[in-house]
Specification:
The protein has 5 helices and 13 strands. With 262 residues, it is of the alpha+beta class. It has one domain: Deoxyribonuclease I, Chain A (4-Layer Sandwich). A 6-stranded mixed β-sheet has the order 5-6-7-8-11-9. α1 packs across α2 and α3 packs parallel to α4. One of its GO terms (molecular function) is 3'-5'-RNA exonuclease activity. It comes from Gemmatimonas phototrophica.
């Protein structure tokens, strides 16, 4: 699952985090995801989810200082199902190993958090990556896509990849194409969009942005991308609501993936 949970902004009024946190946790529990990539999460929001999601552990750091400050692109996972073998975070910048670094035309620090998992039942291993692209800089989004594909070559070491994220870009735009079709040296092969490759199609709306108001047509900016070898059985964009309100300004996206080991 990928889920931009919207940062805790008191100015959101009725949609502020204290009014949504139980809904966000309930949605995650109900849909039964083993791994969730969250975006825009502040530390206290993650602590709130920790208390409401027993059995889950997480990795990730704040994008501002590489520790606790700023938003996290954290990865939550079921500790009873998965073994964490390694993890880390890098910055979407020309100096990706420098905490808090920015580059290109980005407005804000941006990060990608990764985790090397092994399934306790099957032994299958893969590299999970979660990210949140800049909302302003087009050059930053394109360069972030190139950086991620190159980093994945080193991090995955031939293992399958599952990538989640709010990319702030639509499928017709260059940052998406760089991830999914562009020929790139010293990089992993282009990734496949689970929305497209799901064997049963995609359930739900075709957009993921709602601004706490209504789902905006064609605004699909949240993705689950996978290595070409990975089989996707199901994919859904979840329009769940409580009392007529969304739990976030983005819709969560979930996929059932069965073909990691072949």
């Amino acid at each position: 699952m990928t889920f931009n949970i919207r940062y805790d902004n008191p100015g959101d009024g009725v949609n502020a985090w204290p009014n949504r946190k139980d809904w966000v946790a309930s949605l995650i529990r109900y849909h039964g995801a083993d791994v969730i990539g969250v975006q825009e999460a502040l530390l206290h929001q993650l602590t709130d989810l920790d208390a409401r999601l027993p059995g889950f552990a997480r990795v990730g750091v704040g994008r501002t200082d590489g520790k606790t400050k700023g938003e996290f692109s954290a990865i939550l996972y079921r500790a009873d199902r998965l073994t964490l073998k390694d993890s880390g975070t890098f910055w979407l910048s020309p100096t990706p190993d420098v905490a808090g670094s920015k580059g290109w035309d980005t407005a804000i620090e941006r990060v990608a958090t990764w985790a090397h998992f092994a399934d306790r039942r099957t032994g299958c291993e893969w590299l999970q990556l979660n990210t949140h692209y800049d909302h302003i800089g087009e050059a930053a989004r394109q360069e972030s896509s190139r950086l991620i594909r190159r980093r994945l070559l080193t991090l995955a070491k031939g293992k399958p990849v599952i990538m989640t994220g709010d990319l702030n870009t639509e499928p017709t735009h260059a940052p998406y194409r760089i991830l999914t079709t562009e020929s790139l040296q010293d990089a992993v092969a282009p990734l496949a969009d689970a929305f497209v490759t799901s064997r049963t199609g995609s359930y739900g709306p075709t957009a993921t942005w709602n601004a706490f108001k209504a789902i905006e047509a064609n605004r699909r900016i949240d993705y689950i991308l996978v290595s070409p070898s990975v089989a996707v059985e199901q994919h859904a964009i979840l329009p769940d609501m409580w009392d007529g309100r969304f739990p976030s300004d983005h819709l969560p996206v979930i996929a059932a993936i069965t073909g990691i080991c072949r």
